[in-house]
Amino acid sequence: EPDVTIVSGLKDMVVTEGDDVTFRCQVSHENARDVEWKLQDVALQNNEMNEISVEKGKIHTLTLRKVTEQDIGTVTFRVGPHTSTA
Description:
By secondary structure, this protein is mainly beta. The protein has a single domain, classed as Immunoglobulins (Immunoglobulin-like), CATH 2.60.40.10. Helices cover 0% and strands 44% of the residues. The protein has strands at 6-8, 21-27, 35-39, 42-43, 50-55, 59-64, 75-79, 82-85. The radius of gyration is 13 Å and the shape is elongated.
């Protein structure tokens, strides 16, 4: 299986409380396995507050809905041994 790497990493974002924010990370291969999103070292699941999806096979996105002050912190995207943070 090819080693999936991060082609385009996360960008820092400034958001107003109550707004949604989307983070994007592009990887080198489609159908990447072993992918994980974290906020402040807590693994995120796809639910009503966090929308995790893949666009065009390689662009992994995380949308945090209606952010609050508790959402301030580091967002981490990991694929295999590679990580990107914002």
